[in-house]
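REQUEST FORM: STRUCTURE PREDICTION
Request ID: SP-0412
Submitted by: Lab K.M.
Chain count: 1
Length (residues): 185
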Amino acid sequence: MSEKENPENLEELLSEDVQEEQVTENEIESPEEEEIAIEDQLREDLAKEKEKFLRLFAEFENYKKRTSKERMDLFKTAGQEVMVALLPVLDDFERAMKELAKSEDKEMFKGVELIQNKFKETLKSKGLQEITIKAGDAFDAEVHDAITQIPAPTKKMKGKIIDVVEKGFSLGDKIIRHPKVVVGN
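STATUS: Completed
RESULT:
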C-alpha cells in the first residue's frame, strides 16, 4: 500500500483538506466582514463630521446675530453721546424761554420759540424722549434721582416728588439722564 492509500494518512489528508476549505471560507467571509466594518466606521465618521458641521454652522449663526446686535448697540451709543452733549443746550433754551417770556419783545420770543421747537422735534425724531414727571408723582429710585429731601407739606406728599429740578430724558428704552427731583419725607 502506498502512503496515500494508508488509512492513517487518509485521515490526515482529509483533515488538511477540511482545514484548507475552512481557511478558504474564512478568507471569503473576512473581506465581507471587513467591508461591513469599514462601512460602519465610515458611517460613524460621517455622523461625527455632520455633527461638527452642524455645531460650526450654529456657532457661526450665533456669531452673526451677536455681531449684528453689537453693531446696533454701537450705533445707539454713538447717538447717545451726541444726545447727552445736546441736553444742556436744550436746558439753556428752556431757561432762555422763561426769561424772554418776561420781556416785552413778543417777536423775539416767537422766533426763539420756533428755533426751540425745531430743535426739540429734531431730537425727538432721533429717538429722544422726555420723561414726564410732575409734583405729586411717586418717587421711583430706578427712574428718578433724588437730590434732596425736605419735610413734606402734607402727609399725602410723604415719599412723593415735591419739585422737579432738572428734566430727565430717555433714548429708546434707555434712560440717558435721570430727572433730578426733590422728595418729601
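NOTES: The longest strand covers residues 145-150.
Reviewed by: T.R.
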